[in-house]
Amino acid sequence: MIRVLILAETESAATNLARLIGEEERIEIVEDNPDVLLVSGVRVPRMEFAGVPAVVLNSDAFEPFDSRHSIRAQLPNTATAVEVVAAVLAVAHGLIVLTPSQAETLFHPPQNAPAAARIVPALVEALTPRELQVLRLMAEGLANKEIADQLGISEHTVKFHVASVLGKLQAASRTEAVTQGIRRGLVPI
């Protein structure tokens, strides 16, 4: 069950969003400890929900994803229930969602765009929830044995997860993995 917290500018907007996704049996609407934020008409709070992936509904033009805010999907206000549910499910599993026009903008910017905008960012394989936990504990400076004790798993399993995190983040060291995690919004600061 994916726990979704709705943040909207008005109570009626929140109620409408709850109705929009409420029929999906894989989603539970909650008031705290969410897996995903569904946001409409308000800014994504940085501190309170640091690291929680967000699906944002807005009428603004596409803005490149900002990992500091954990925005993983940006849909128009006119998105259908199927589109919103699909985006929530996708970001809950570590994916980034792009509409066709957003993908076109990101991967094929206009020729007159600044050079920096024409560089396609390196795509990284998503971390599993356990790998994300391990990365965050690495960021706290914990050794493999301490991570194993905290998560209730074997040290060997921690080594496996650390190796997987390094590979997925294309990092040569634990420090580089933590740095990449911070830059990508995976590790709250």
Outline of this structure?
The protein is built from 7 helices and 5 strands, in the order E-H-E-E-E-E-H-H-H-H-H-H. It has 189 residues and is α/β, with parallel strands linked by helices. The two termini are 28 Å apart.
Task: Explain how this protein is built.
By secondary structure, this protein is α/β, with parallel strands linked by helices. Helices cover 39% and strands 14% of the residues. The radius of gyration is 18 Å and the shape is globular.
**Number of helices, where a helix is a run of at least 4 consecutive DSSP H or I residues:** 7
What level of helicity do the residues show?
Answer: 25-40%
Radius of gyration based on Cα positions = 18 Å
Q: Strand percentage, roughly? A: 5-15%
Following the backbone from N to C, one meets helices and strands in this order, namely: EHEEEEHHHHHH
Work out the number of β strands.
5
Write the layout of secondary structure elements.
Blueprint: E1 2-8, H1 11-21, E2 27-29, E3 36-40, E4 54-58, E5 71-76, H2 81-92, H3 100-107, H4 129-139, H5 144-151, H6 155-168, H7 174-183
Parallel strand pairs: 1-2, 1-3, 3-4, 4-5
Features of this protein?
single chain; 189 residues; alpha/beta; 5-stranded parallel β-sheet; 5 strands; 14% strand
